[in-house]
Design brief:
This is Outer membrane protein beta-barrel domain-containing protein. With about 170 residues, this protein is mainly beta. The protein contains one helix and eight strands; from the N terminus they run αββββββββ. The two termini are about 35 Å apart.
């Protein structure tokens, strides 16, 4: 955790040293494919929305929200009744660092709401994620992009570790 906080502080301070760029606030919307690691879940899927606000030449503040569904694996035990799916709503904030106009590194911290678990109650989980991605311009004036990202995510004491692939449409405001 200390290393993650130190990373954010160093990225933020290095970006402030640069001059302010002509970046604009942006919103991206798109589907996600989630691949859990060592979990009772199969591959999950969902969608997310991100808002980016430039704070320095190469750093944006990032706010992200999503909705994801995970099905349980079929273990094949006698008299085993496979439970219904779990639904999660992650809400995170973080930083996106652009070492290049099309390439970025991102880090996020936040909470994940478990909307339905097998006990019928809801729970909140702490989440952090680290990832990278790139932007592909869609039009000539480069205000719209396809955002392709890959990230590693960990939720509350290793309850769920996963790799997520996100393909989103990003447009400047």
């Amino acid at each position: 955790m200390v290393k993650l906080n130190l990373f954010f502080i160093l990225v933020f301070l290095s970006a402030i040293a640069n001059a302010q760029s002509d970046r604009k606030p942006a919103i991206s919307l798109g589907p996600e494919l989630n691949v859990p690691q060592r979990s009772g879940y199969t591959i999950g899927y969902g969608a997310s929305a991100n808002f980016e606000l430039p704070v320095a030449a190469s750093v944006n503040v990032l706010v992200a929200a999503g909705y994801h569904r995970y099905n349980y694996k079929n273990f094949g035990f006698n008299n085993y009744v496979k439970p219904g799916p779990d639904y999660f709503t992650p809400l995170k904030a973080g930083l996106k660092y652009y070492p290049d106009a099309k390439l970025y590194l991102a880090g996020e911290l936040g909470t994940v709401f478990n909307n339905k678990n097998n006990s019928g109650s809801t729970s909140n989980l702490f989440a952090y994620s680290l990832g990278t991605g790139f932007l592909l311009p869609v039009n000539d004036d480069k205000t719209n992009h396809v955002d392709i990202g890959l990230r590693f995510e960990n939720w509350s004491q290793n309850r769920l570790r996963q790799f997520a692939i996100r393909v989103a449409y990003r447009f400047d405001l």
